[in-house]
Amino acid sequence: MNRRWKKLQRGKPKRQPRSYVLIVCEGRETEPVYFRSLKKHRRLSTADVEVLGRGRDPKAVVTLAERRAREKEREGNPYDQVWCVYDHDQHASLDEANDQAAALGFQVAWSNPCFELWFVLHFEDQTASCMARSLGRKLRANIRGYHKARDVYGTLEPLQPDAIRRCEMLRTANARLQEPKRNPSTNADVLVVLLNRLTGPIC
After folding, report:
1. CA 48 vs CA 29, 42, 45, 79, 119: distances in Å
2. Which SS3 state, helix, strand or coil, does residue 139 take?
3. Rounded CA separation 53/33 (Å)
4. What 8-state DSSP symbol labels residue 56?
5. In this structure, are residues 54 and 28 in contact, taking their beta carbons and an 8 Å threshold?
6. How many H helices and E strands in the chain?
7. pLDDT tens series, the chain, 203 aa
8. Parallel, antiparallel or unpaired: strands 185-186 and 107-112
9. pTM for the complete prediction?
10. From residue 106, how far is each of 5, 10, 116, 190 by CA, in Å?
């Protein structure tokens, strides 16, 4: 692909120039519901952020993202950044998906074992290896009536600075172990911070 998408610049939170972002999610419920709700709360339009749910494996996510990006490029309205959101677990296509995304200049928001780890980190530390089932139990203990299709962004938003701090601490600890994507780990916060900066920082 000729166009290279700009990579996220980390640093002091500040308002970003207008940017057109595509987010393609592995799940059909949890991730798309969350990011669409974030868009609504941050007053981001479809001219700023487009969210698609794939409901399949990481390779299918990257392939859909590439197809959609090519379509928008042909229309003369290309994305500034493309993000693929998927779990960093035992998918057979994981390495191929990561390589394909890197070759295309796409960003990957990965979670190990699953995206719900990002939710749990709003409430508590999670340093021990965990499974999706145990994360679900923790979420139901903190959010009454929690289920995968429920919009919980409004509940989580006030706790977002704590979740970002915990994500950064996990990455630092995992880097020391030379296992950056070990269980538990996620960089979902990097994408969330980017979207926050499109309309100004919250923390």
Report:
1. 21, 11, 5, 9, 24
2. helix
3. 9
4. S
5. yes
6. 8, 5
7. 444 444 333 344 455 456 899 999 999 999 999 999 999 999 999 889 999 998 789 999 999 999 999 999 999 999 999 999 999 877 788 999 999 999 999 999 999 999 999 999 999 999 999 999 999 999 999 999 999 999 999 999 999 999 999 999 999 999 999 999 999 999 999 999 999 999 644 44
8. antiparallel
9. 0.89
10. 6, 16, 22, 14
Per-residue tokens: 35 = 């990011």
- Among candidates 54, 31, 52, 8, which has minimal Cα distance to 195? 8
Q: Which residue's entry shows tokens 């007053």?
A: 43
**Residue 130 near residue 136 (C-beta atoms within 8 A):** no
E strand or H helix that includes residue 7? none
The amino acid at 162: D
**CB burial class (10 A; 0-12, 13-18, 19+) of residue 20?**
middle
Burial class (CB in 10 A: 0-12, 13-18, 19+), 99: exposed
Q: List, for residues 75-101, the tens digit of each pLDDT value.
A: 999 999 999 999 987 778 899 999 999
